[in-house]
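quick one before i forget lol
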Amino acid sequence: MITPLILGILTREIIEKKHGIKKFIELKPYFSTITLTGLYILLYLIFASKAKLVIAQYGYIITITHSYIILWNNNLHAHNT
């Protein structure tokens, strides 16, 4: 959690020093897209590196996924009421 924070601060400082605050504000909307894309790539790499384990123990994955869906559904309904 510390590394992304530090990298984010460094990125902001570098962009502001090289191009100014106006350029940073112009680029700011793209950061969420870049972050999400990086997250998807990271998740893909994690699951790809553990593919044999996931296939060998698919029962655990189904149980965890089922529990997650129930928790997510309860959380969604709690916020909508």
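fyi Helices lie at 2-19, 21-49, 51-56, 58-80.
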